[in-house]
Protein backbone atom coordinates (compact mmCIF):
# COMPACT_ATOMS: atom_id res chain seq x y z
CA UNK A 1 0.00 0.00 0.00
CA UNK A 2 1.43 3.38 -0.96
CA UNK A 3 1.81 6.25 1.44
CA UNK A 4 -0.92 8.32 -0.24
CA UNK A 5 -3.35 5.35 -0.05
CA UNK A 6 -2.58 4.97 3.66
CA UNK A 7 -3.23 8.67 4.25
CA UNK A 8 -6.59 8.52 2.38
CA UNK A 9 -7.60 5.42 4.35
CA UNK A 10 -6.61 7.12 7.60
CA UNK A 11 -8.58 10.26 6.69
CA UNK A 12 -11.66 8.16 5.83
CA UNK A 13 -11.41 6.32 9.17
CA UNK A 14 -10.97 9.61 11.03
CA UNK A 15 -14.01 11.07 9.23
CA UNK A 16 -16.13 8.02 10.12
CA UNK A 17 -15.06 8.26 13.77
CA UNK A 18 -16.04 11.94 13.86
CA UNK A 19 -19.44 11.12 12.32
CA UNK A 20 -20.04 8.35 14.86
CA UNK A 21 -19.06 10.67 17.72
CA UNK A 22 -21.43 13.40 16.45
CA UNK A 23 -24.28 10.89 16.10
CA UNK A 24 -23.70 9.57 19.63
CA UNK A 25 -23.62 13.11 21.05
CA UNK A 26 -26.84 14.02 19.23
CA UNK A 27 -28.66 10.94 20.51
CA UNK A 28 -27.81 11.71 24.14
CA UNK A 29 -28.68 15.39 23.86
CA UNK A 30 -32.01 16.04 25.58
CA UNK A 31 -34.69 17.57 23.42
CA UNK A 32 -36.92 20.35 24.63
CA UNK A 33 -40.64 20.16 23.92
CA UNK A 34 -42.01 22.48 21.24
CA UNK A 35 -45.34 22.68 23.10
CA UNK A 36 -46.46 21.83 26.65
CA UNK A 37 -50.09 21.49 27.75
CA UNK A 38 -51.91 20.33 30.88
CA UNK A 39 -55.49 19.08 30.87
CA UNK A 40 -57.77 17.20 33.25
CA UNK A 41 -60.35 14.72 32.16
CA UNK A 42 -63.22 13.51 34.27
CA UNK A 43 -64.61 9.98 33.87
CA UNK A 44 -67.98 9.07 35.39
CA UNK A 45 -68.78 5.38 34.81
CA UNK A 46 -72.41 4.36 34.33
CA UNK A 47 -73.47 2.23 37.29
CA UNK A 48 -77.21 1.82 36.62
CA UNK A 49 -78.13 4.73 38.91
CA UNK A 50 -76.40 7.75 37.36
CA UNK A 51 -78.06 7.92 33.94
CA UNK A 52 -78.19 11.74 33.99
CA UNK A 53 -74.47 12.45 34.37
CA UNK A 54 -72.38 9.45 33.28
CA UNK A 55 -69.65 9.93 30.66
CA UNK A 56 -68.43 6.33 30.32
CA UNK A 57 -70.07 2.94 29.91
CA UNK A 58 -68.91 -0.67 30.06
CA UNK A 59 -69.27 -2.03 26.52
CA UNK A 60 -67.56 -5.38 27.07
CA UNK A 61 -67.46 -7.66 30.08
CA UNK A 62 -66.07 -11.13 30.82
CA UNK A 63 -68.55 -14.00 31.16
CA UNK A 64 -68.85 -13.51 34.94
CA UNK A 65 -69.28 -9.70 34.66
CA UNK A 66 -72.05 -7.31 33.65
CA UNK A 67 -72.41 -3.86 32.09
CA UNK A 68 -73.07 -1.83 35.24
CA UNK A 69 -70.35 -3.11 37.59
CA UNK A 70 -66.68 -3.63 36.79
CA UNK A 71 -65.57 -7.27 37.09
CA UNK A 72 -63.60 -8.65 40.02
CA UNK A 73 -59.94 -9.63 39.56
CA UNK A 74 -58.53 -6.21 38.57
CA UNK A 75 -61.52 -5.62 36.25
CA UNK A 76 -59.83 -8.00 33.79
CA UNK A 77 -61.75 -8.24 30.53
CA UNK A 78 -63.85 -5.09 30.91
CA UNK A 79 -63.86 -2.61 28.04
CA UNK A 80 -65.17 0.92 28.61
CA UNK A 81 -66.06 3.57 26.03
CA UNK A 82 -65.92 7.17 27.22
CA UNK A 83 -66.79 10.72 26.21
CA UNK A 84 -65.35 12.72 29.11
CA UNK A 85 -65.13 16.49 29.54
CA UNK A 86 -61.63 18.03 29.42
CA UNK A 87 -60.92 21.04 31.64
CA UNK A 88 -57.90 23.26 32.25
CA UNK A 89 -58.19 22.78 36.03
CA UNK A 90 -59.29 19.91 38.24
CA UNK A 91 -62.86 21.15 38.77
CA UNK A 92 -65.47 18.94 37.11
CA UNK A 93 -67.79 21.95 36.81
CA UNK A 94 -65.25 24.18 35.03
CA UNK A 95 -66.02 25.11 31.45
CA UNK A 96 -64.82 22.22 29.26
CA UNK A 97 -62.29 22.97 26.51
CA UNK A 98 -63.09 19.71 24.73
CA UNK A 99 -63.82 16.02 25.12
CA UNK A 100 -61.66 12.95 25.77
CA UNK A 101 -63.18 10.24 23.58
CA UNK A 102 -62.10 6.64 23.21
CA UNK A 103 -61.82 3.43 25.16
CA UNK A 104 -59.88 1.64 27.82
CA UNK A 105 -59.50 -2.10 28.19
CA UNK A 106 -58.56 -3.67 31.51
CA UNK A 107 -55.93 -6.11 30.30
CA UNK A 108 -54.07 -7.06 33.48
CA UNK A 109 -55.18 -10.39 34.89
CA UNK A 110 -52.77 -10.27 37.83
CA UNK A 111 -52.12 -6.51 37.94
CA UNK A 112 -54.38 -3.45 37.88
CA UNK A 113 -53.66 -2.30 34.32
CA UNK A 114 -55.44 -0.90 31.27
CA UNK A 115 -54.68 -0.22 27.65
CA UNK A 116 -55.87 3.18 26.40
CA UNK A 117 -56.75 4.49 22.97
CA UNK A 118 -58.37 7.92 22.86
CA UNK A 119 -58.43 11.40 21.39
CA UNK A 120 -58.70 14.83 22.94
CA UNK A 121 -61.17 16.71 20.72
CA UNK A 122 -60.32 20.26 21.73
CA UNK A 123 -62.65 23.11 20.84
CA UNK A 124 -61.50 25.96 23.05
CA UNK A 125 -62.20 29.66 22.74
CA UNK A 126 -58.39 30.00 22.70
CA UNK A 127 -57.42 30.36 19.01
CA UNK A 128 -54.32 28.17 19.51
CA UNK A 129 -56.23 25.26 21.06
CA UNK A 130 -58.37 23.82 18.29
CA UNK A 131 -58.02 20.34 16.86
CA UNK A 132 -57.38 16.91 18.24
CA UNK A 133 -54.58 14.95 19.88
CA UNK A 134 -54.47 11.15 19.64
CA UNK A 135 -53.07 8.88 22.36
CA UNK A 136 -52.39 5.16 22.76
CA UNK A 137 -50.58 3.08 25.30
CA UNK A 138 -50.33 1.02 28.45
CA UNK A 139 -51.64 2.47 31.73
CA UNK A 140 -50.27 0.76 34.85
CA UNK A 141 -52.79 2.57 37.05
CA UNK A 142 -51.14 1.89 40.41
CA UNK A 143 -48.06 3.86 39.36
CA UNK A 144 -48.09 7.47 40.54
CA UNK A 145 -47.31 8.69 37.02
CA UNK A 146 -47.32 6.84 33.73
CA UNK A 147 -46.48 7.81 30.17
CA UNK A 148 -48.41 7.10 27.01
CA UNK A 149 -47.62 8.10 23.46
CA UNK A 150 -49.05 11.07 21.63
CA UNK A 151 -49.33 9.54 18.17
CA UNK A 152 -50.77 12.35 16.08
CA UNK A 153 -53.23 15.15 15.85
CA UNK A 154 -55.21 17.55 13.69
CA UNK A 155 -55.79 21.31 13.51
CA UNK A 156 -53.34 23.20 15.73
CA UNK A 157 -51.82 19.81 16.62
CA UNK A 158 -51.40 18.43 13.09
CA UNK A 159 -49.02 15.47 13.06
CA UNK A 160 -47.99 16.11 16.69
CA UNK A 161 -45.80 13.56 18.43
CA UNK A 162 -44.79 13.37 22.05
CA UNK A 163 -45.40 11.96 25.49
CA UNK A 164 -48.38 12.42 27.81
CA UNK A 165 -47.63 11.88 31.48
CA UNK A 166 -50.79 10.94 33.36
CA UNK A 167 -51.50 10.87 37.05
CA UNK A 168 -54.68 10.02 38.91
CA UNK A 169 -55.79 13.29 40.48
CA UNK A 170 -58.94 11.95 42.18
CA UNK A 171 -60.87 8.70 42.48
CA UNK A 172 -64.22 7.80 44.01
CA UNK A 173 -64.55 4.03 43.98
CA UNK A 174 -65.15 2.56 40.54
CA UNK A 175 -67.56 5.33 39.47
CA UNK A 176 -65.43 8.49 39.14
CA UNK A 177 -61.82 9.31 38.42
CA UNK A 178 -59.99 12.40 37.26
CA UNK A 179 -56.69 12.26 35.42
CA UNK A 180 -54.16 15.06 35.11
CA UNK A 181 -52.50 14.81 31.70
CA UNK A 182 -49.28 16.75 31.14
CA UNK A 183 -48.44 16.74 27.46
CA UNK A 184 -44.97 17.36 26.03
CA UNK A 185 -44.98 17.56 22.24
CA UNK A 186 -41.62 17.06 20.54
CA UNK A 187 -42.88 17.32 16.95
CA UNK A 188 -45.00 20.36 16.17
CA UNK A 189 -45.91 21.58 12.70
TrEMBL record:
<dbReference type="GO" id="GO:0048046">
    <property type="term" value="C:apoplast"/>
</dbReference>
<keyword id="KW-0732">Signal</keyword>
<dbReference type="GO" id="GO:0009699">
    <property type="term" value="P:phenylpropanoid biosynthetic process"/>
</dbReference>
<keyword id="KW-0052">Apoplast</keyword>
<comment type="function">
    <text>Dirigent proteins impart stereoselectivity on the phenoxy radical-coupling reaction, yielding optically active lignans from two molecules of coniferyl alcohol in the biosynthesis of lignans, flavonolignans, and alkaloids and thus plays a central role in plant secondary metabolism.</text>
</comment>
<dbReference type="InterPro" id="IPR044859">
    <property type="entry name" value="Allene_oxi_cyc_Dirigent"/>
</dbReference>
<comment type="similarity">
    <text>Belongs to the plant dirigent protein family.</text>
</comment>
<keyword id="KW-0964">Secreted</keyword>
<protein>
    <recommendedName>
        <fullName>Dirigent protein</fullName>
    </recommendedName>
</protein>
<dbReference type="InterPro" id="IPR004265">
    <property type="entry name" value="Dirigent"/>
</dbReference>
<dbReference type="Pfam" id="PF03018">
    <property type="entry name" value="Dirigent"/>
</dbReference>
<feature type="signal peptide">
    <location>
        <begin position="1"/>
        <end position="25"/>
    </location>
</feature>
<comment type="subunit">
    <text>Homodimer.</text>
</comment>
Amino acid sequence: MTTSTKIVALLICLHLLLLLHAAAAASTKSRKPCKQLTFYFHDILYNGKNKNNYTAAIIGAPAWGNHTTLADYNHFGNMVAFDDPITLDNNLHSTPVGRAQGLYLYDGKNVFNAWLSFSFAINSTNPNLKGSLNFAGNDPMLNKTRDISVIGGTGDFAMARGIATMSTDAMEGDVYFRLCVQINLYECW
